[in-house]
Amino acid sequence: MKEKRAQIKKSDSQEYKEVFLNLGFREDIEKIKFIKFTHPLSDNLNVYWLFSSKGRKEKDKPQYLTNALRISPDTNHKKLSFSLDLDSFGNPKIHPHSGLVPFRKNAKKSSQNASYGFRFDSPKDLKEKLEQIIESWNDRSVSSETSKKENPINASVKGYCKVSSEKGEEITQKNTNQELVSYVGIEGGKKMYLSCRKERDPKLRAEFLKNTDWKCAVCGMVFEDVYGDVGRCFIEVHHVVPLAEEDEERNTTMDDLIALCSNCHQMIHRVIDKRIVGYSESVKYLKDKVEQNKKSRNEIDKLGKH
What we know:
This protein has helices spanning 10-22, 123-142, 202-210, 223-227, 262-273, 279-305; strands at 7-8, 26-30, 34-39, 42-51, 65-71, 116-119, 161-165, 168-174, 179-185, 236-239, 257-260. The chain is an alpha+beta fold. The chain has three domains: 7-140, Alpha-Beta Complex (Aspartate Aminotransferase, domain 1); 144-195, no CATH class; 202-305, no CATH class. It starts with 6 loop residues before the first strand and ends with a helix.
């Protein structure tokens, strides 16, 4: 006989949410059928808190939260001491696609399109069950092949648990104040890319640098003043109108180029990409920002001296 979902009073919902947050879960998204919680241990360690579907249409707002949760079918259910929703044979039931899970919608009756379900009856019960779910993912990850490789970063640090995934290895440790997360990525693999790039005229850049004072046009920085000999005769050259903005070849003159330090060069492109101002105003906009911040810092310094 199918067990009915119990209603969670609106006044109690925050207390249950605190259980999730205290165990390291983050509230990700809220949709018409569920609230999704994610956990930093794994991309697939997601818990879905279901809304009631009784008496509402798809476009209506959910009536109330229930005591029903769904978890990924990749969860090692054999490590759980509590009962999951069971099928007619007494085995953990794989719920078919219901729009709840972020797996492929068209993968009918596959593990990527389903979830396990279970119920809870109090904040304490929810906490104990969520702790077991986290532990089951911990055991699963540690026993995987990729996590068997010794990691020099966490080998000497007790209390850390190592969790591996396709993206790399994540190390977590809980203390009384907060959860500290240190991520160790896997890099250095080789891939081949086919791409197009805009051609630049090296002679044009060389001629421009002959006439520059090696000073950033925005903040006034001179690399040699900061880094000594290693920074002598170094500056970056920026196109006032980026080459990427035009599809065809164009004529570029000295007036189309300016000298920028590396930081201001990045910020100019950021201002342009975010469409804060146009190309022609971007240098003045950033220069005004730098001057404004300098004045603010000077005023703070004066107040500090008094």
